[in-house]
Amino acid sequence: MNRAERLRNHLMALPPALYLLLFFAVPSVMMLFASFRYPGEYGGLAPWYYIEDGQLSLDFTLENWLRLFESGIYLGLLFKSLGYALLTTLICTIMAYPLALMIARSQKRFRDLLLLLVILPFWSNFLVRIYAWMIIFSPQGALTIGLNHVTGALGLEPISLMFSSTAVITCLVYVHLPFMILPLYANLEKHDNRLLDAAQDLGANRFQCFWLITWPQSLPGIYAGAILVFIPSLGIFAIPDLLGGTNGIMIGNVIKQQFVESRDWPFGSVLSLVLTGITLLLVLLAAKLGKTGGANSGT
Amino acid sequence: MLEINAVSRSFGDFVALDNVSLHIQAGEFFTLLGPSGCGKTTLLRLIAGFDQADSGQILLDGKSLCALPPELRPVHTVFQSYALFPHMTVAENIAFPLRMAKMSKSEIAHRVAEVLDDVRLPDKANHCPDALSGGQKQRIAIARALVNRPRLLLLDEPLSALDAKLREQMQIELINLQKEVGITFVYVTHDQGEALALSHRIAVMNKGEISQIDEPSVLYSYPDNRFVADFIGQCNILDAKVVSSDAQKVSIAVAGLGELTATANPEITFNSGDSCALTLRPEKIRLAATLEAGSDEVLFSGKVHDMLYLGDVTVYIIELANGVLIEAMLANDAPGRTRLFDTGDAVQIAWRIDAGHLVP
Ligand SMILES: Nc1ncnc2c1ncn2[C@@H]1O[C@H](COP(=O)(O)OP(=O)(O)OP(=O)(O)O)[C@@H](O)[C@H]1O
Ligand SMILES: [Mg+2]
Questions:
Q1: Which among A181, B205, B345, B353 could bridge B34 via Cys, Cβ 3.0 to 4.6 Å?
Q2: Which atom of ligand 1 is nearest to the CA of B45?
Q3: Interface pTM (ipTM) of the complex?
């Protein structure tokens, strides 16, 4: 690489770097700064210095960070949210894989139509779709009534779907499923079908063809989809707000609460930073896995 | 060993294979040769089990293959696109059929090393297929198909993606490899030179039918029909009519040249009045400024119409009286820059009557 080429590569990387700096690094530093300050009396932040008798004093504290560890509530909630996001990712993967495979293997002229069906839900508002789930889960909804007929016949307690972790995870899966299907499809669609012929010719049955040829080559698609599903579901607050009740609450709700209802910006910043840190760590891990797991699959 | 009996396969109205019958012997290097679209790959897919024949039978060692799926047939294929698994190393690729056969780890390692030696790439075991050159990929694909010692190895134009020099080298390697492992090869190509160089026997195919099955030298010298004569090598083909025939020689009338004698395959009978064609290989024609015709030769005068310098030989197109064009060939074996004739020069050509071969 000569100097001009290197310079050009640096210049090419400039816009994304600026974008990251402006919308990620700067806010993160501001939050870090805020996490060591006191909350303002009416929300916001207290001044970080004051002058008394002509003497300048700084007003920083570790209180907010200590509070995170003092009560197990917040860490517990963090772990629970991680569990929800992980479960959502897992269910999305299991549901998306056969669908993406079917679309990738269907005739070319049907593929665009099938993909359109996958992204069709995006055409209506996110909140409207969650309200729709509220109607489905409501005690007067056909689903609950139908299920309770069954539980009644079996002699069990009637169940309630609304305001439960089941409702939250169902809706999380529903909202994020397309984000798993699309990258997975993009990966599967590029697979060379002649490799399956070759594997079969060399003695592999249908299951072995899938498990030894298709699956390992599709891992980069799964990693990409997993990142797209996991990160937004970890931080989400709208779905648990509307469907979770008290049991289904997630870390995103607490963060929102700190900033809006409790007006405790410093502690909200602490929680946000922890969430960001965990997310970043997991993404780096996934990127590393993706690199070693699917180095040659052309994705 | 492999018997193909009256196999037909159609796609809609299009007949890709029409009543094809073949018998391939154990240990043979058998080639399917024909122009693009004549059904070679279709036949190979039937043997491998990727497709089912509409009618007819395929028997391996006397047992029908029809009910067996591809993974259960003792037949492996080398694909034109190599089809190496990109997410596995070379060694893992080669080990694949052995793993499928549930062989022990130590046996697999042993066999992989052995076959890598056979294809002369022992140091590439841990490379990714993407890091190999075309010729190396080809050798790995062959090694992978051979390692489990199938009864039959199918090769679908395995060398067509390689450049001319490498192809020639790989041809020699293929011949040696086949001799070494003793496995029956069914080789598909549309390159007649490759087919002549490699095969014990060749089946020439045309539009889904078999035109002729013979050894390369027989196919070249004694074609059964115009298609084979034309498809294999260079050939002069002159339309003619049978005047009279006896057991050995046939008397024919060629438009513009008058009455000639030629030989024909004994199993084909010619009756007087039949239309036929005289086939004449350019290298069997003598060419000089003036010639003395032997007693068993025919001689014509003409002039050089065109010429084609090919390096080792020069092809002359000679125009005889009445506008008949004949291709002849002279080796450029004299030292220096040889240029024997020029366009327009008067020349004479002659050929032995048994060099002219008659086809229906
Ligand atoms: N699945 C199919 N559906 C429809 N037509 C087909 C199918 N497979 C092959 N054909 C047709 O059958 C004919 C023979 O095809 P085949 O692939 O056997 O040719 P080939 O001799 O291998 O030619 P090439 O040298 O170009 O590979 C072609 O005209 C092709 O269009
Ligand atoms: Mg073909």
A1: B205
A2: 18
A3: 0.80
Number of the ligand 1 atom closest to the C-alpha atom of B34: 21
Specify whether the CB–CB gap between B130 and B86 falls below 8 A.
Answer: yes
| Percent over 70 (pLDDT), chain B | 99
Q: How far apart are CA B354 and CA B264, in angstroms?
A: 9
Q: Is A216 on the interface with B (CB under 8 A)?
A: yes
The rounded Cα B183 to chain-centroid distance in angstroms is 19
Q: Measuring from atom 24 of ligand 1, which residue has the nearest CA?
A: B36
Amino acid at A200: Q
Strand, helix or coil for residue B323: helix
Return d(Cα A16, Cα A212) in angstroms, integer.
37
Ligand 1: does its nearest atom lie under 6 Å from the Cβ of B204?
no
CATH number given to B2-226: 3.40.50.300
- Name the residue of chain A whose CA is nearest to B47's CA: A201
**Residue A297 clears pLDDT 60, i.e. is over it:** no
| Domain edges within chain B | 2-226, 234-359
Could you tell me the pLDDT band of residue A86, with boundaries at 50, 70 and 90? very high
Q: Maximum distance among all alpha carbons in chain A?
A: 89
In testing the pocket of ligand 1, which one of B14, B157, B210 has its CB within 8 Å of the most ligand atoms? B14
Assess whether pLDDT exceeds 50 at residue A83.
yes
Is the minimum distance from the CB of B37 to ligand 1 under 6 angstroms? yes
Query: How distant, in Å, are the alpha carbons of A63, B278, B287, B350 from that of B354?
Result: 110, 11, 17, 12
Question: Are A203 and B128 an interchain contact pair (Cβ–Cβ within 8 Å)?
Answer: no
Q: Which of B40-44, B52-56, B217-221, B350-354 has the lowest mean pLDDT?
A: B350-354
CB pair distance less than 8 Å for B81 and A298: no
Give φ, ψ of B343 to 5 degrees.
-55, 130
> Which of A138-142, A273-277, B342-346 has maximum average pLDDT?
A273-277
Give the pLDDT confidence score for residue A299 in this predicted structure: 35
CB-based contact A204 B87, cutoff 8 Å: no
CATH code reported for the domain at A71-298: 1.10.3720.10
- Name the residue ranges covered by the structural domains of chain A: 71-298
pLDDT of B321 strictly over 70: yes
Contact list, A195 vs chain B (CB under 8 Å): 83, 85-86
B234-359 classified as CATH 2.40.50.140: yes
Q: In angstroms, how far apart are the furthest CA atoms of chain B?
A: 75
Is it the case that residue A296 has pLDDT exceeding 50?
no
Q: Are strands B275-280 and B286-288 parallel, antiparallel or unpaired?
A: unpaired
R_g (Cα) of chain A, nearest Å: 24
Angstrom distance (rounded) from CA B126 to CA B124? 6
